Amino acid sequence: MEYKVLDRSNSTDVARLAAGLINEIIERTRVKHFDVNIPLVEKLCGKFMDQGQYVVVGAIDNDRVVGFGALCESHSLYAEGTFGIVQEFYILPEYRSKSIGKDLLAKIIEYGKSKQWVRLELCTPPVPEFDRTVSFYKENGFEITGGYKMKYVIA
Fold first, then answer.
1. Domain with 84 in it: what CATH number?
2. CB of 78 within 8 A of CB of 87?
3. pLDDT of residue 98
4. pTM for the complete prediction?
5. Count of domains observed in the chain
6. Of the candidates 89, 110, 112, the residue with the CA atom closest to the CA atom of residue 101
7. Residues in the chain where the model's pLDDT stays below 70
8. Which residues contact 99 (CB under 8 A, 6 or more apart)?
């Protein structure tokens, strides 16, 4: 398994995996939290990657992207500096429970250190449907900070 920062040439693979993540959330929760528009996701992914707003670290098995973590940089007073947000994280189901997620997180943490980020943050999908996901992150050093993820749709 190879772990590396991906570029625009991988945006189709990332869009496919992002759709898998979104569909899994919808299937487990039985609520359509998101729309799945693969052409738009692919276009946005490439655009954000080109602009340096979105960094994608991939897990690659024989030239096939089988998992990814998408990162954005942010800044805050409460975090006391610059930090990374894991916007999406997904491993194909047939590649789970093989330490790929753990190794991908390690590569993401390494990337964050290279950028001098003070921390990483993420939001998990809804619980209890994704309790196993929460356990995975806790086992890999993340702490529950409380609160809810909220949104206000502007456009």
1. 3.40.630.30
2. no
3. 97
4. 0.94
5. 1
6. 89
7. none
8. none
